[in-house]
Each structure stands twice: as structure tokens, then as C-alpha cells.
Amino acid sequence: xxxxxxxxxxxxxxxxxxxxxxxxxxxxxxxxxxxxxxxxxxxxxxxxxxxxxxxxxxxxxxxxxxxxxxxxxxxxxxxxxxxxxxxxxxxxxxxxxxxxxxxxxxxxxxxxxxxxxxxxxxxxxxxxxxxxxxxxxxxxxxxxxxxxxxxxxxxxxxxxxxxxxxxxxxxxxxxxxxxxxxxxxxxxxxxxxxxxxxxxxxxxxxxxxxxxxxxxxxxxxxxxxxxxxxxxxxxxxxxxxxxxxxxxxxxxxxxxxxxxxxxxxxxxxxxxxxxxxxxxxxxxxxxxxxxxxx
Length: 294
Description:
With 294 residues, this protein is mostly beta strands. It contains no helices and 24 strands. It has three domains: 22-111, Immunoglobulin-like; 122-192, no CATH class; 215-291, Sandwich (Jelly Rolls). It has strands at 22-25, 38-39, 43-48, 56-60, 68-70, 76-82, 86-96, 99-111, 134-136, 140-142, 146-147, 151-160, 164-166, 168-176, 180-182, 186-192, 215-219, 222-225, 230-237, 243-248, 251-256, 261-268, 273-279, 284-291. The strands form six sheets. It has a five-stranded mixed sheet, with no helix packed on it. Strands 9, 10, 12, 14 and 16 form a five-stranded parallel sheet that branches. Residues 7-13 have low confidence and may be disordered.
């Protein structure tokens, strides 16, 4: 007696065997090298598979419709450099019973510091679940507005062309052309900005350089309009009885030489105009403008 199974075995075509897809670092991996799942930014990898006779293969890993055709006697392909996480899909087509059979084997290789040429934020927001806020280890640039609800910690340079707003900001170097607002603590090693305003004071522990524009000699008399905040220092010498004069709006500054010397210091805001001069003749008279900035 012959026992037959209740359900006979299928007689259709069988799928091709697996390709055993794997990736190795570099272009010429040794036979003893282990496969990798992650590589450094900008690395190349060698993708390998088991060679199978009588099949047609394509490797897909870029934005391609057809993939890269693989020669039948080839069992690897050097790919890269990789700048972001990449998925490799090996398409294998074989014939069984006169019908094409397709199998796909996939492998993803991640990059330790991936680069994204474009980042789209849903609803225009980037939310960080980290308890200590958002950390950016390399240079960061915002072409428009950058707003951080919690702490923004930039380990390198940060720049923004629009508004930069955050309660607490720590940064190595900060450059921006728009508006910068920190309602809490702001710490930086170097700050370059067209305009700086502080409502709670400005504390600097290092070097302060705000007189980079140098001084401008204004002569013995005339008018001067301040392009930026600064101050005028006037000095008369070598003659007694000279009176230095400087008038800004409703403010008048006067100093008469005593023992042949007299000095006045006049602070000015950007946009103010000062009329200045001296009563009396002779002596040496100097009016000098010092701009706070460049």
C-alpha cells in the first residue's frame, strides 16, 4: 500500500536561493574581514552576494529606475561614498518552468554622521525629546528664522540670516544678520552682530574690542553727525582762557582752560548731530570722534 499526502506538493516554479547580501568597509576588503552595518561619513563600501549561475541581477541603491546591472560572473560592487543611511536592494530574476521568478534581498548601511541636503520640518517645527534641549555639534546656519523653545547648545559656529530666538543659548561663535533674542542666559566665545541690545546688562569676562574704527580728527570747529554710538573728546592746551564748546540738542558742554589745559568728553547716540568749536584764539585745540564699533 502506498500512502499519499492529503495535499500534494506544489509543482510550480521555486524561488531562487537567497543572495546572502552583506557589506564590507572600503574597496578591497580582506577575506577575513567582518561585514559592517555602519560606516563613517564619506566612506565607500563593497557590497557582496553569493554568485548564482543563470540569473539576471540589478543592484538598486540610488535614485534609479533600473538599478545597476550586474555581470553574471560578478559577486560584488563597490558603492559610495556614502553620506547618509543607504539601503541596497539586490534584484535577482531567474527562470523556472518557463516563467520569470524575482527575488529581492535588501541591506541597510547606516552612516555615523549622516548629511541631509534638505530637511523638511513638519508644521515648520523641530521638537527634541532630550531633557537638555537641542544639541548641534558642528556649524549650524539658518537661512530664515530659528526658534528654540528650550536650550540651544551649539558646539561650533552658529549663524542666522533671520531671527534667532531661544531662552538659553550656548555657542562657540555666533554670527547673524537678522534679530537675535535671548530671554535668559546667552553664552558665547565670539559674537559678531550688526546690532546688540541688552535689557539686563552685558557681562564680558574676556577682551572687549569696541573701538575698532579708531579715531577721527574733527578739526577746531564744525558739526558732526554720529553714524553709530560713540563719544567726542575735546582738548585745548598751550593757552589760558580758551572755552571748548559742544552742543547736542538741548545739552551744552563747556570747559575753560586752566593752567593752559582744558578737556571735555561728549557722549553721542547714533543719528545725533553736534555743533562744536572754541571761544578764543591761539593754543592747540583738538576735537576727536571715537566710534563704538567699526
